[in-house]
Amino acid sequence: MNVSFFGELLTAISDRGRQLLDLSGIVSSHGETIESLSSALLSGRGEASGVALARQILARYEALDDDGRRQYFRFLAESFTPDAERVASAARAYVQSPGPDALRRLTQVVEPPRLEFLRRLNLAPGATSSIVNMRTDLLRFIKGDDALAAVDRDFVHLLVSWFNRGFLVLQRIDWSTPANILEKIIRYEAVHEIKGWDDLRRRLDPADRRCFAFFHPSLVDEPLIFVQVALTRDVPGSIQQVLEEEKHDAAQIREPNTAVFYSISNCQDGLRGISFGNFLIKQVVEDLTRAIPSLKTFVTLSPVPGFSDWLERAKASQILTYLDATELAILDNLGDPAWTEDEELVAAMEPVLMASAAHYFLAAKNIHGRPVDPVARFHLGNGARLERINWLGNISPKGMREAHGLMVNYRYDLRDIERNHEMYAHAGTVAASKPVRSYLRLPEKSQALVPVGE
User: Fold this and answer.
1) Does the active-site annotation cover 302?
2) HSE, side-chain direction, 13 A CA sphere, residue 281
3) pLDDT, tens digit (0-9, with 9 covering 90-100), for 353-408
4) Catalytic residue among 302, 308, 356, 359
């Protein structure tokens, strides 16, 4: 793979550099703490010594336990912050005499020293991967700690730059991809569990299946995000239809007209909140369109991960006013995992859950005035349209637990993507098809809120 070649080239260069320059004698760190080494790195002792310091800091960090790592992040929060007096002085100078020089000085003193520290830390070979792993730890410690939240913002600020689209490499994953990467695809799959190598082959090997992943040169052979695609002649309404097909229709393979994105998995916890999915979908659509001209429709088959929890809270809050007493009583049966085995109960449950789902997508909002469903926010924000709500689209234990079996299709119509995106971004408007809106029993202006803690 190209990304592996590039990574191997960088490794060879760094190995050669270490042979030519013995850094061990440049910095004496015997008895020094990770905090003192970090302060020394920020103070600046030259580029060569900076590389040596950065390597030692990362090695010391790896040796820390959770308490030590938490304390280290506290050190970064408390010690590497802007100097309040210098900020105030530069701000007064800018107000009194606005101009490029005053603005430059103000910008310099406002920037947290943590940013420069992280830039210098990234000098060490393989440091980008280590910094991503550091953020994985930071996210575990951050809850309810405003100081660590500020540290996280600095990590994100740099990671967004380091992992921008210009550095990402799109690769197709197939059965000939190196085994170490295929093993990671199995491990990182977050939507529909891959049950071993045979299951993976069923998703990669047939002519009507595709898988694509983004890689970054600094994370060699580590996918950042990947998407699985089924090429079909219609829009599937269930994941069972996609995953459990043993026979593949010959006509479908020859001239598919629909590309179904049925699983998108982020792989690196340390890059949480740094969006790659919108770039991935757009790039894959472009590549598939060029390779397979018969493709005209691009849809997802998406989970609804927050629906069950939302419905339970909404019922407890007595805001399901669009349901009558009989329908509310029907919802009580959701506590029995075997309810799908009773045909009469399934028939009675369908209109109740579909009406609730329509309310969930079209009327219920989070505290920011956006749909409560995170998957919906992602696809709607990228310009997709909510095309269809699928009854019992995922009857796996996870699908029943998270969404009472519901799945949805989001449609990416190239003619409407920009318009849908603008309407969503500026007014929070949910682009939805007429069939989806037909399930809604309340006026679409209804804004009954069930906050989800965002």
Assistant:
1) yes
2) 27
3) 999 999 999 999 999 899 999 999 999 999 999 999 999 999 999 999 999 999 99
4) 302
